[in-house]
Amino acid sequence: MSPRARLVAYAVALLMLLALGFGAWGVWTIVQVRAADIPSPAQWRAQQARLAELEQRVATLSRSDQISREANQDLQNGLAERDEEIAGLRTDVAFYERFVGATAQRHGLTVHELRLQPQAGNAWHFTATLTQNVNRGAVSRGSLRLSVEGTRNGKLETLDWSALRQQAGAEGVAYSFKYFQQVEGDLFLPQGFQPVRVVARLDAAGGTGVERGFTWTEAAAPGGTGGA
Questions:
Q1: For residues 32 and 24, what is the distance between their CA atoms, to the nearest angstrom?
Q2: Closest C-alpha to 111, from 157, 72, 146, 162
Q3: Which of 12, 47, 56, 132 is the 20 to 30 Å CA partner of 64?
């Protein structure tokens, strides 16, 4: 082998050794870095404990937020109920003042209000508010009967108390009061009957009867109705 060829071979061998050495140094460096990244058992346990603590804190904060929201909602609901109760009491006070107050106007026996609430099937529940303040201290007694005017099969029809109660000779709803009273009961409409107007009749004991009419639409609306 000529001196030049020998020199080239030495140079190639030297380059290969350098490449192998550089590669070995790189592998060693990566292994050392990765080994440094691996926590010790104590560090791992500390990290696990920290993770558990943070998870517990997040759960506690989430629960506290939920409790706060529920408490706030309960408070809002309570305030709404109190407002509704106060409004109802104010209405009651105004009603009482109208009939028993010192400046109340005198009114004879009448049906002040009639409310109708739908029930299952063709049944309706009625609540009638009866009032009088002419004879203060005197007790008004008697019975209430209803009749309903409407149409069926294109013809006008009136259902009397017995038909509404589905009982022949049905007795009226008894009442007895000094200033006002609410009486209630149920009535039943036949299939295909379209109610238009309901008439309330008070048969007073020892006195003349009193009638007052109400449109069905208004009586069945929330809050009841005055007379028609």
A1: 12
A2: 146
A3: 47
pTM over 0.90: no
In sequence order, which ranges of 38-160 are alpha helices (DSSP H)?
41-100
- 45: three-class secondary structure by DSSP: helix
Residue carrying structure tokens 């030495």: 10
**Is residue 145 assigned to a domain?**
yes
How many folded domains does the chain comprise?
Answer: 1
- Quote the domain boundaries for residue 199: 110-219
Nearest-angstrom CA–CA distance, 125 and 127: 7
User: Residue 124 domain-assigned?
Assistant: yes
Contacts of 147 by beta carbon, 8 Å cutoff, 6+ apart: 158, 159, 160, 161, 164, 198, 199, 201
Output the six-digit token pair for 77. Answer: 């609901």
Amino acid at the residue 29: T
Whether the CB-CB separation of 160 and 216 falls below 8 Å is answered with: no
CA distances in angstroms from 100 to 110, 116, 153, listed in the order given: 15, 26, 47
Determine the 3-state secondary structure of 128 from DSSP.
strand
Cβ within 8 Å of residue 117, ≥6 positions away: 124, 125, 126, 127, 220
**Beta bridge partner(s), residue 27:** none
- Is 87 a domain residue? no
**In whole angstroms, what is the distance from residue 63 CA to residue 68 CA?**
9
What's the pLDDT tens digit per position in 3-57? 666 665 666 666 666 666 656 555 555 555 455 556 677 877 888 888 888 888 8
Count Cβ atoms below 10 Å from residue 103 Cβ, excluding itself. 6
